[in-house]
Amino acid sequence: MKSTKEHIEDLKKNGYSLEFETVFNLAFENYKKIAIYAGLLILVFTVFFIIASLIIIGFTYGLENFQQLITPGNFDPKNLTDKFLLTYIGSITLLNCLISPFLAGLIKMAHFAQIDQEFHVANVFEYYRFSYFKELFLATLIITILSMGFSSMLDATGIPMLGFMVSLTISVLNILTIPLIIFSKFNAVEAITTSINLVLKQPLLLFALMIIVYLAILTGIFFFFIGFFFTLPFMYSMYYAVYSCIIGFRE
User: Fold this and answer.
1) Transmembrane stretches, by residue range (predicted)?
2) CA angle, 248 as apex, 242 and 249 as ends, to 5°?
3) 186: which of 9, 23, 135, 190 fits an S-S bond (Cβ 3.0–4.6 Å)?
4) The overall pTM is greater than 0.85
5) To the nearest whole number, what is the mean pLDDT of the chain?
6) Cα-Cα-Cα-Cα dihedral of 51, 57, 59, 61, to 10°?
């Protein structure tokens, strides 16, 4: 039997067949298994992270300066300094990198649910181990810099939709990046290039699947916003489903 990497090389050369209905059904059935548990974990993690962030920012800037900082008028693009923008971009990039192992854990949860294996809270955080963390951190850093860089340049044209479309495209092209790191043990650069190569074999179908995911998550926001936390796991079920249908799990 070929190894996983040999199998992936064959897929990169010869392509693969993929059906919208098969992937969607797998993702949706998987989502139903993890929605409540994953949603609660995301909610608790978000609340904890927000409280920790507010405390750190409050101590860093001081309470009065912090209150002034979050005044809505200060977020008017005309009032934003280059220093603030760089700090903002740097903070968002660092945040994405730090939470990427947690998100990888949600994809692992989807896998455990699919094979009916017991899952524990500790499993969500297992990818903070250095061997995985460094690859997830680097991959997220590269993707975020590219996404925010291109989006910022296109936003400057006065057509924000262009920046959004580029950001969405980069996201779709990297739909397999995290699964390749945690399931196939690829390094960051190898995972990114392989993901792009494989996605480009079926770009329209995968793009359509992700549009459905984003629309589903968007509907969650309208259910008193808290619904967002329970529709968001659908994204990680989709990441798992796409990896499972394209690459699969070879024992």
Assistant:
1) 34-59, 85-107, 160-183, 204-230
2) 135
3) 190
4) yes
5) 86
6) -150
Residue 244's SS3 state is: helix
pLDDT tens digits for range 191-218: 999 999 999 999 999 999 999 999 988 8
pLDDT band at 49 (very low <50, low <70, confident <90, very high): confident
Of 19, 25, 50, 43, the C-alpha closest to 237 is 25
φ, ψ for residue 16, nearest 5 deg: -160, 160
Q: Tokens 């992270």 sit at which residue?
A: 49
Measured distance CA(56)–CA(143) in Å, rounded: 26
- Phi-psi bin for 225: left (phi > 0), alpha (psi -120 to 50), beta? left
Q: Which residues contact 142 (CB under 8 A, 6 or more apart)?
A: 188, 189, 192
State both tokens at 215. 């629309």
Number of H helices, E strands in the chain: 12, 0
Range list of β-strands (E), the chain? none
Short-list 136, 77, 83, CA closest to 105: 136
* End-to-end alpha carbon distance in the chain: 10
Q: For residues 140 and 88, what is the distance between their CA atoms, to the nearest angstrom?
A: 17
Ramachandran quadrant class, 62 (left: phi over 0; alpha: psi -120 to 50; beta: rest) = left
